[in-house]
């Protein structure tokens, strides 16, 4: 789209719109088709991410348990699991569906109330608009 973008996290409507947190447009009857498509794609991406984390935790169940390694080592442990998981996925290493039995998707704590408008970043709307344009140019999918 002609503008370099950094990585963003996906959030739901309760999070403030920031240039590093993408959130859907508020659902109402005034949304344009492009905004509806943006919300749809954001929900699809969120679903893919949830599934990826579920498979990661199922394959590397050490991530589900209390661990007595030092806090300094913990990020390395998580990163190692992520790298090994990606290698397994890239090489079509069989995923045993039985592994999922002990890994129920959990709702992570998130804000109960929408963030106040004062927390919104005006520049973030430009990022969201660029994403809308990008999704529109990609067509259906």
From TrEMBL:
Classification via Pfam families: DDE_Tnp_4
GO molecular-function terms, A-Z: hydrolase activity; metal ion binding; nuclease activity
Cellular component GO terms, alphabetical: nucleus
UniProt keywords, alphabetically: Hydrolase, Metal-binding, Nuclease, Nucleus
Main location group: nucleus
Domain DDE Tnp4, chain residue ranges per copy: 5-86
Cofactor(s) recorded in Swiss-Prot or TrEMBL: a divalent metal cation
Entry's localization field: Nucleus
Record-stated family: Belongs to the HARBI1 family.
The name this protein goes by in its record: ALP1 protein
């Amino acid at each position: 789209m002609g503008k370099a973008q950094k990585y963003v996290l996906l959030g739901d409507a309760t999070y403030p719109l920031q240039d590093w947190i993408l959130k859907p447009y508020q659902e109402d009857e005034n949304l344009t088709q492009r905004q509806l498509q943006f919300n749809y794609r954001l929900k699809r991406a969120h679903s893919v991410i949830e599934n990826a984390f579920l498979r990661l935790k199922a394959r590397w169940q050490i991530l589900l348990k209390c661990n007595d390694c030092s806090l300094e080592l913990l990020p390395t442990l998580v990163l190692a699991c992520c790298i090994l998981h990606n290698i397994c996925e890239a090489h079509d290493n069989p995923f045993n569906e039985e592994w999922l039995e002990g890994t129920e998707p959990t709702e992570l704590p998130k804000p109960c109330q929408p963030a106040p408008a004062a927390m919104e970043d005006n520049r973030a709307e430009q990022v969201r608009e660029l994403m809308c344009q990008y999704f529109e140019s990609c067509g259906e999918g």
